[in-house]
What does this fold into?
Amino acid sequence: MLSERELVRYDRQIMVFGVEGQEKLKSAKVAVVGVGGLGSPVAYYLAAAGIGTLLLIDEQKPELSNLNRQILHWEEDLNKNPKSESARWKLERFNSGIKIETFVGRLTVENIDDVLAGVDVVVDCLDNFETRFMLDDYVHERGIPLVHGAVEGTFGQVTTIVPGRTMRLREIFPKVREKKGKFPIIGATAGVVGSIQVMEVIKLLTGYGEPLLNRLLIIDLAHNSFDLVKLR
It folds into this structure.
């Protein structure tokens, strides 16, 4: 399945999980829901890893206050192109060997089946639990893994949901309260958490390593604290 060019491009990671692992990445379709602070590094590194098809989902346009963390969007994109289209333009030029699909709009109960059709892994790069819980319901109905990530300030968290093997997102956060208005965030926090989410996707698809199943990784970059909480 891999061309000579792909064997060269992905040589360093093929040394880790082999040609078969790279072929699994190439044949996979991954949805990135939210192409902002988390979605930017997630989409970038998934493209770099050679995921065959990326589906980028977002309804917003980049704003000036986004640029401290949303590294896929530039000043020339401000208030012009939707984030999913802004990201696609750059990623197609970064890796011409993969396919980039986009959905400009909000996921709803009515459209989620059509939008996420054929997806192998869903990556939660959102900033609200209402949509996260809708994703949680969907992946459990379809048996699709979900990689959850969230950030605020210097804090972040990551866990991987696999229907039938792990707790649901609703069970992990049963009493979550949505915060209104904007929240503080340092861009590097999103970069670290997004990179960990990408590793979770790669582990799920290749079988290499141990995903965060029934475990919640909590990060505090202000104090270089990494806590791994076992979920019951």
Summary: The chain has a mean pLDDT of 96. The chain is about 40% helix and 20% strand. The helical segments are 4-9, 11-26, 39-49, 83-94, 112-115, 129-142, 169-172, 187-206. The longest strand covers residues 146-152.
